[in-house]
Predict the structure.
Amino acid sequence: MGCVCGKQNIILQNNKYYIIDQIGQGGFSSVYLVEDTNNTKYVLKCIYCHDEKDKEKAQKEAEMHSILDNCCKNSYIIKLIGYKMIEKCPIFSKTPKDTFLMLLPFYKNGSLHDRLILYQNQINLKTIIQHFHIICLGVKVFHDVSYAHRDIKPANILFDHNNKPIIIDLGSAAPAKVVITSQKDAQELLDDVNERCSMTYRAPELFNIDLDSVIDERIDVWSLGCLLYAMLYGKSPYDLVYERGDSVALAVISGKLYFPPNSYENFNKIIKMILTTDHVKRPNINDVLEYVTSLEDSLNQDIERDPFV
């Protein structure tokens, strides 16, 4: 793979890509819409690297894509088309730092975050559970290779041309099991999750990290519970806490949940099972998929009995 910076274009794997627009900006990266010489659009993620540690993290994100592709030919997680580290490219950064480029597919149908209002205005429980089921299958891909995504949230779910959910942003992904044997271990993990994991979708064991504890992939299961709540009611249960100015950490650790009046009890039951504060007792992703399949079957039976449900 080569990369040569020209005037508003880059070359990756001998293909030229023209920069159309900047479509995203985060604390660690910028995202650009680009197109090739055939006018096919892609997304270019540019990760700014201030030091060797940043370079290692960027490289690990690319490696995570390879691990998932090689171990399971899945269609639930975004594919990495190409990548390259370049030195001090002014196109992507006004300051002289290295930039790690990742070329990804462009999905024009937007994110789950964009659809939360649509779900509320035109709620279709069957569609919601179908989408949630696919997202759970994507999370299972991570867990099957002993990794956790660590930042499952509506903004990290896109929809492909068939309106199927696709998990994106593997920058927070890491080996699922973390053994905490010292205060140093606890602080390093806390610093990492504070930097890379969204607070209102974060599991309780990531707020108060105990010595001699084991963190595992069920942190993603907690995030899925918050995600399903948001798909039904517009926001994570802890977004509401944050907006009130109350402590998200205390609310999450307490495990208290508020459901709107006239809400969906069969869905609420699953959410409550998923949002078990004790991660040792929390269901794993296979358990969640069983719950979801059962609920899908129940909804299908209701529709067969009454097509207007």
Notes: The CA atoms of residues 90 and 96 lie 7 Å apart.
